[in-house]
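Ticket reopened. Same input as before:
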Amino acid sequence: MMVAEALALSAVLFTIGVVGVLTRRNAIIIFMCVELMLNAVNLSFVAFSRMYGATGQVFVVFVMTVAAAEAAVGLAIIISIFRHRQTVDLKNINLLKG
Amino acid sequence: MSDFFYRVHFYLFGLIAIASALAFVTRKSPVAAALWLVNTMFSLAAIYVMMDAHFIGAIQVLVYAGAIMVVFLFVVMLLNLGHPDELSDIKGTWGKLGAGLLGLAILAQVMAMARSQAPKELIQPVGEAAKSLRDLNAVGVIAKPLFSEHLLAFELTSILLLVAIVGAVVLGKRRST
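Engineering reply: fixed in the latest deploy. New output:
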């Protein structure tokens, strides 16, 4: 019950996350948008676990662990970029731009 | 009657989640954005609890809203980014237009995927989830598969966390030159 509604909510949240990544230039906010997308995927895992058994919830635990590790490493990278450039605006971080 | 209340609360928390997510992507200040994201995560935790995933709901509050977002706020504070300068970091009209179009395309794709039918033999009988929740209680439902079928993945996750801790310390360390 309510699986279809949960999947629709998950799709909407994921899309908001994607739009956030595409429209913002602040590296920290882009990072938070990625967390929002991970949350949306977790919601669809939980919704599917109502239909296919509890394995979906186990995957949610793994996704959360990976998200925590990713947040720690990613924020450390952002801090070291800030030390070099004094900014986290992606407009000014364009060494790889052709 | 209780089904009606269930539905009302589901939609209520869903709307709160979407509204907070929209506020999150449009705020200029990183601190305000982070707090709106925390709001989204809390309402998602409520939805998890309503979908009989009690343990996931608790972990969502503890790990996501409690730990990960605090780390984000700490970094915002550490880099002194809390005050948005007069220049917004949101891209101009063309950026917004492109992002909106791409977002609509992705939304259409995901919705189309969500409507597809799953193979019948994968779907467990109705009431099976509630029954295993009754038999194994909220933690046992996750712990049993986690420590039997997925034990190797669980152990690998601990190595991943160790690597992440070491990596974060090495990257965040000041060069001693």
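The CA atoms of residues 17 and 44 of chain B lie 7 Å apart. Residues 2-26 of chain B form the longest helix (25 residues). Please confirm and we'll close it.
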